[in-house]
Task: structure prediction
Amino acid sequence: MNIEMVDGPGGVVVLRPAGRLNMVAAPAVREAVNSIVDSGRSRIAVDLSGVDFIDSSGLGALISGLKSTRQAGGDLRIAGANDQVKLVLSLTNLERVLTPYDTVENAYGDA
Amino acid sequence: MGEMVTRTLRLMSPPDTVDTVHDLLDSTWEAVPDLHMRDRMALDTAIIELAANVIQHANRGRPITATLTIIAFTDRIEATLSDSGEIGEVDIEGRTMPEADELAESGRGIALMKALVDTVEHRRVDGFNHWTLVRAREQVRIPDAPPKHMPSVSISGIIDEMARQRALEEMGILDTPPEDRFDRVTRLAKQLFGVDGAMINLIDGDRQWAKSVAGNGPEEMPRSASVCAVTIEDERTLVVPNLFENPELRDKAVADELVFYAGHPLHAPGGERIGALCVYDGSPRTFSEREQEMLRDLADWVQQELTASHELSRAAEVQQGLLPQSLISMPGWDIAGMCLPARAVGGDFYDWYPVGEGAAITLADTMGKGIGSAIIAATVRAVLRSAARFGDVAGAVDLAAASLNADLDTTGLFVTLLHGRLDMDTGEFTYVDAGHGLTVVARRDGTIERLRSSTPPLGVDLDTEWQSSSVTLNPGDVLITASDGLLDLYDGTLDALDKIGALALLASTSSEVTDAVRTRARGVAPDDVTVVVVRRDG
Result:
């Protein structure tokens, strides 16, 4: 999976995975997050507007990213989730820890 | 709504991944234009979870093959994934979603599947895992209703049938002759309920086969005409007062012969429904709650008999396993044995094993037949094997007899045996014959010598002094020892031994002799038949 990585407002790094975020693509997401954290930055927004589909492996990669950014004093937030992603978040009771924001801008609106 | 749509995918991972599965799903849904978005979302997610779970966990890194079949009915979608992975127990019931605040990175897959579809089932048959997912389509869904278990109608039915058939075949009861222990139950049922007939029917592939018939029922009939084949679809007793008045069973009714029917399913040891105990009559009839209870009791009885014979056949396997399997290396010698119990297990056994430079050879016959004798036979074998390591032949029998006396005394059994040791170089066979007397040496020149029995059987006289004798086998000579069941195959006298001796001289190998006896004994032997043949090349 090709993951676009761009600088967002307020020092936030925006990740843009595309396609299916499943067990095939999940390792790439983990690696991308790890490389950002290793480079000393820990505020990440994952823009899911290009993601058609997520499964529990994809979810696991996001949670892993959430934990490593928080340990580094930052956070990982998600934006642009489609209905399928929202359905999976709601069924797995993860909406509270991975709250889906409409846009990347809103994700860190409080910052 | 459209017609039923079926798609199948053969998966091999690696190189296939969940993306391959996803592509199949996309193409399947194209053929189901009226599929609701919510159904598609739920099914995609659940099926990908399932495929990921199988690919990731089932074979722990080893390649895996799987078949995914998706069937879209008008009211439901069913998906079955069959894989070659190794999964023992799968606890679908117990998999619940981790707590909301728990940041576990895995462990949500099965819980997620359960939340998305109405049924998640796992079966293991013939080394394959079969996973079935069923979701009722939005068109028939009650809004906001929680998932409700829907039995799958397509694939899992086939899998259940496979498991059922396999269980039935493993019981080894099909096409066996009538047995009184079953006939007793059907006779009783017929009398008890005052009906035309009672049967124990087993559903085998596309036929119904009767293990027992009281009355005029057919031994065999097509499954399509069988009412018991309907009974086994459920755990409950099927009672039909008048088949002609039942729209679904009307076509199985036979005027004046099969009008009333009551049947209760019978299970294999693993729980698969393999057949039914049924009663029937040529006239309509009611069947009270109390009568149903009695029928269930009788079915339980049949069940116990079925299980007992299953366990017995396992015992038979074990007993056959105790016989020497591989030939010990005896250059210049050819040895063969056979043991055919009259029942599933028996009191005869033979044994041979290397001792020092030669071989110990035993043939023993425990008085009686069946399980009790078999237990004693196994004990005698074990005791003799350990005793043979100490001292000479007489010493070994003495030690064995001393250890066995108490057991034999308690059980009231006794054992006849020939136990000897063969010196392969000289051909000298040193032996103790304990009340056996059924051993001959057929000489190359055609004379037959009977070996004398000098001592009583084990378990008769506690103070016996065991003495050995010896005989020398020259090149071309054959020693044959047998149990008394062999005599019954001929005229019942010791002349049978002479006949076998003559046969052995004509045969070119020892196993030719045992094969001949086996053929003669098949199906007619009233007693256990055991023979050991030892020939010296020449």
Notes: Residues 4-104 of chain A form a domain with the Transcription Regulator spoIIAA fold (CATH 3.30.750.24). The two ends of chain A are 30 Å apart (CA to CA).
